[in-house]
Amino acid sequence: MYTYRDAKRMAKVLVTSLREKSVDISHGESLNIIAKQFGLDDWNTLSARIKRAEASDERRLQGIQAWNFVGEYPTEFDYGVDENALGSSRRAALISYTQAIPTRYSHTAKVFGTLMQSVSAVPYHGKRLEICADLATERVSHGATIWMRVDKSPGHVLVFDNLKQHPDGWLFGDNSWTKRRIILDVPPEGVSLHFGFFLKGKGSVWAANFDLTVVDNSVPLTAQAIETVREQTWTAPQNLDFAKVIDLTQ
Predict the structure, then answer these.
(1) What is the pLDDT of residue 119?
(2) What is the mean pLDDT of residues 220-246?
(3) CA 98 – CA 69 distance, rounded (Å)
(4) In this predicted structure, what is the pLDDT of residue 27?
(5) Are 76 and 97 in contact (CB under 8 A)?
(6) Looking at residue 221, what DSSP letter applies?
(7) What was the pLDDT predicted at 234?
């Protein structure tokens, strides 16, 4: 089955077939016809899509040293290094959701992809860390930002923050380069430190200038220890009359 990447070959076949029937069209006209067969307005639109796909293939072959992509439906994402982020000639890491899904099958609101790095938390025991990065977005539907987490063991999270409740938190829609930062304490029992940036839903997010540094304890935290919340939650029965509710759509 032909795909839009076969457009030029399809256009040549179309020109040859029509000439055999004494119908003469230019190569440019045939390209526009092929583009419309793929539901696009013209060849320029189709050509741009082909170039993006080729760039995506190259990114997948290269990878990014020390960084890993993790997410649901990974084949529906384009991710890796973009040497010309937002046409600015700036090198940045990219996560872009590329799959077009019919509405009746849509799972876009649940789709999540992150580029992340994992290191030892031991050198940072008892220290306050700041992670920051420059982010830019296009048409982000459900959010994009940075995140950081400290684990005691797999599945045992000690501290986590993705700025969801922070005033300078998730980015939506279109945003030029915007600084995001997270401040958290590394507990002495922490084993692994994980950080990165993510895209939820449709759109694209670029990240550049990641920096991880130890800061003074006077710098305010952006999150609290999850272990503390768990202790408060389970020390005594709560909400037995079901009067307190939470909004799960937020």
Answers:
(1) 93
(2) 58
(3) 15
(4) 81
(5) yes
(6) P
(7) 44
Question: Do residues 114 and 198 touch, judged by C-beta distance below 8 A?
Answer: yes
Q: Each residue of 70-81: pLDDT tens digit?
A: 987 877 888 888
Backbone angles phi, psi at 186, to 5 degrees: -95, 110
Give me the helix-helix angle, 43-62 and 27-37, nearest 10°: 70
Judged by average pLDDT, the poorest of 11-25, 68-82, 222-236 is: 222-236
pLDDT in tens, 192-213: 999 999 999 999 999 999 999 9
Q: Domain residues of the chain, as ranges?
A: 1-62, 65-250
* pTM tops 0.70: no
- Domain 65-250: CATH superfamily is Galactose-binding domain-like (2.60.120.260)
Distance between CA atoms of 30 and 167, rounded to whole angstroms?
A: 52
Average pLDDT, the chain: 82
User: CA-CA distance, 50 to 5, in Å (whole number)?
Assistant: 6
